[in-house]
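Task card 7
Instruction: Convert sequence to structure tokens.
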Amino acid sequence: MRPFLHLVFIAAFAASISPGFAQKLVDPDAVAPEYRVAAEKRRAEQIRSAECRHKVEEEKVLPRDRAAHINQCLEASNQK
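Output:
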């Protein structure tokens, strides 16, 4: 029974380390032609979001304030 518990803990730890559930950038060339415009818009949105998250990390914003800063950055980039 003990070796089984050790294996369970090791598996849980290994699963928590890998970034397997991260959202990947949309590739507009990999979708059907009728959905390509939507895929290009989604990719642009993902890039803007990643840039805003990077700015927040550079500015070392507190975790409790990150959502507000990211939203402000996205709104500012939409107005441009």
